[in-house]
Amino acid sequence: MRMTPTFAFVVAAALTVDVTTPLAAAPSGPEPVEIAQDNGVLKAVLIRPEGAGPFPAVIGLHGCEGLLGRNGTLETRYRDWAEHLIKAGFVVLYPDSYGSRGLGSQCAIRRRAIRTDHERVADANAARHWLRAQPYVKADHVTLLGWETGGVTALWTVRRRTTPSKDDKTDFRSAVALYPGCRRLDNAAWSARVPTLILIGAADDRTSAQVCQRMVAGTRGRSAGTSIVVYLGTYHDFDHPDLPLQVRGGYAFAVDSSGKIHTGTNPAARADALRRVPQWLAR
To answer: Taking the model in full, what pTM does it have?
Structure first.
């Protein structure tokens, strides 16, 4: 059945959901795991709810800064999202695509050795196969959630194939991409084979909301259910739990090619994302 993409435009200032109350610590602390691949070992961080399960699972794909902070622990954004997702009943697995290959932040690099449409897609699929083999995971309910370059990878990973794969029977259940760069995907006539949601700020000057809107519009009649939510007056990293609005430089890619972008929390857009994403992934 053909699905028509849905557009939703949210005025962030009008949202009033309160997410200022801290969450309780995750029932299971971050646990390092290693996933065997043909070309080496993929390191990842696993966080589980209490109980034997089986639980639905989320694979979280980090952005260009990488997965871990300077102290070697999960970056604040990913720890925060894991707490919310575990509270909603998900197992969370974060593959460390850069750290596994001895790399740091890739934000300032134009020609990246770890590509969003190749190596990182392989990482996402390896993580899915690993999760499906775990007794506490619902094998038919593994989903994708990506931020920025990780969001780009999520979109490449669930792109509709010209020739169906034998692996499609155990495919991802759904996907969410937060502020992905959509230009190459749009040029490649992207469409999704599983329900896919994109969340992005209208004022994002790191990745273009207009290009993502055009890409989603172009999927009409040839894609699984695809929706995009554009938050008015909202910049990059809007979902971060505590990031004052600021201008940062040194980015290899920016909408105006200056290398400078605005980045910071938008409480209303963040609250909507924290509500909307678990609902989408639970489908």
So the answer is: 0.88
